[in-house]
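ok trying again, last paste got cut off:
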Amino acid sequence: MRQPVAFSSLRVLTALLALSLFVGCGDSDEPGNDANSPLYAITTQQLVADPVESYVVVTADAERTASLSLTNAIKVPGRALGVGIPKTGSLYVVSDESATVTRYTLNSAGALEPSGTVSFASQGVSSLGEYQANFQFISETKAYYFDGTTAQVVIWNPSAMTVTGRIPLDALVIPETLLAFSGAVVWVDAQLIMPVGWRPVSGVGITRKAGVVSIDTATDVATIATDDRCGYTHDAAVGLDGQVYVATEAYGAAVRRVVGADVPEPCLLRFDPRTRRFDSTFYRSLSGLVGGGTAGALIPGATGTAYVRVLDESIAPVTEGTHPRTVASGTGWQWWELKLDTLTATRKADFPSTSGSVFLFESENQTLYTEFGAGAASTTLHVLGDSGKATVTTQGLSFSFLQLR
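nice, full thing came through this time. structure:
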């Protein structure tokens, strides 16, 4: 899902909205003076620029209300991500404009300094990006990069900044389709489980196929499981039974709402990490779980629970010609809590309706989720729980967040 909204048609509107949101707001982007206080890197993609550019902001703010300035941020060409291992003082910055990873290290003044690069071009990779979850750090000396364009996992060493191997995933290639890895993964012991989705190369739609790549991180052996009962299953959560529940994300639900019954019904499947197969006896309609309506996503909540998103068209009406990405990224998606053992769902009325496309970030004391502003002008983080309390806001789209210390 490289473009959550129709970017080219929204740039002028985005610029106006960004100005209206941030003029007159008090900035709070200076790193904390206390060397022991939490410090974060938030990378935001600015779509008003032509060409597109991104900024890496270092801030002490994440859990309190603040508006971040880009004045002292690190500028990166293209759509960038900042990834890494939390609380290690290192940030790895990538962009869709190259295959190069640049490492930044936190200095004593609380600023980031370049400290090395590595290129994945030798593996046939030309662009880095998609989601923060495409980069998975196994240890300080081993990491994976999931590349949908070349259908492989690049294995690299974040300490030595070298490429050490690859895991080919040729079985995921389907003619005339685009392969996209999930924005969220789950772990079961030493097994990394990455959901997979496909959509047609041209036109608006999703492919009727669900997929999971599971990797034994001790041996780097990958197993691929697929299921043809629904599609665009990009979301996953672990149940109390140790099973992994995989669901159609909000974009897939939006496509179904816009295009109609020719698109696979958004669904919930169950994947067994022991057998590394989908459970052929288990299938649930997401709409049926919430009493009807446009439903998508499975966002992990408290142990044994997850959240399903349901579109409230009294807030966000869908009209003829509306693009599914606009629907998925727009405000108007309710929160429903789903108990994975009983499969009962309850509307969380104390959570404000927000954008359907959501990423989860971990701060010092909270799990935060993203809310994208209209026209991709801003990103506001909210506490998952606490009635969705809003915290920090930045300009543009923030797909990545890392606690540096």
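cool. The longest strand covers residues 191-200. The helical segments are 11-22, 250-259, 286-289, 324-329.
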